[in-house]
Amino acid sequence: MKIYTYDNTFEGLLTCVFECYNRKDFPVDICSRTGEQRYLFVEKIDIETNPQKAERVWKGIQKQLSGKNKQLLFYAFLSEEMGIEMKIYRFLRRLFSGHLNLETDYGDSDVLYLTQTSQKVKKEAMRMLQFVRFQRTKDRMFFCGIEPKYDVVPLILDHYKKRFADQKWLIYDLKRNYGVFYDKDKVEEVEISKKQFNTLTGQVNKQLLDDSEDFYQKLWRSYFKHITIEERKNLRLQRQHMPRRFWRYLPEKQGEKK
Q1: Domain that holds residue 76
Q2: The model's pTM
Q3: Domain termination site, one of 99, 125, 151
Q4: Of 125, 140, 160, which closes a domain?
Q5: Cα-based distances in Å from 207 to 9, 178, 201, 210
Q6: pLDDT tens, 211-239?
Q7: Distance (Å, whole) CA 215 – CA 242
Q8: What is each CA distance from 44 to 5, 30, 31, 86, 244, in whole angstroms?
Q9: Which of 7, 49, 210, 220 could form a disulfide linkage to 136, CB 3.0–4.6 angstroms apart?
């Protein structure tokens, strides 16, 4: 038995798929080099990521899938669910074999799982557009700490590049310990010291905040409080639309009972 290992990137996974066909080799599993080792007596083949090979596979996927599902596999991959690689691989084997109407063949457990998982990732990305709150630092950069269920940072970049094109900002994934920094020109992936922010709340340390930040946060909390109509307050409905796991990142919810 053989398993393929890769660098835990989507390009790396697509390279594995390319090598499976190129070598006429069909592994029993594909997993990250740093992932959980579930096999003892197997031959491990480490696959180096090759952008050109990955691009060939990606173009093949784009030709085969309908418009609404062209990003299906990428979204599902960002879920980081255990075993997602083999589900994607099995899906692609059927796709490239010319299976008709594969995208709607929900009797196939892999198709159903990938579709449902992709939808969950999309929903989480949307929440990161709704529940993100930036803090201004002394060096005039806007910082936001988030902790999404899935690795959705790549999915929200374009929105913030367009929305805040004239500002420097950093969105940091506290769970995965990486972020993306925009300098008004380009976006780059970064890692920063945990000493610069609270890893539990995502709040920047006070000594690094702009002098006006505390004032504006208080102003926002006051505004939020005064537009609330107490007689129409429905905490149950509010929690459905604003899950409690996001409250610690929202200035307007600080001090409220959970």
Answers
A1: 2-125
A2: 0.84
A3: 125
A4: 125
A5: 36, 22, 16, 8
A6: 766 745 665 566 456 556 676 766 676 66
A7: 24
A8: 7, 10, 10, 15, 43
A9: 210
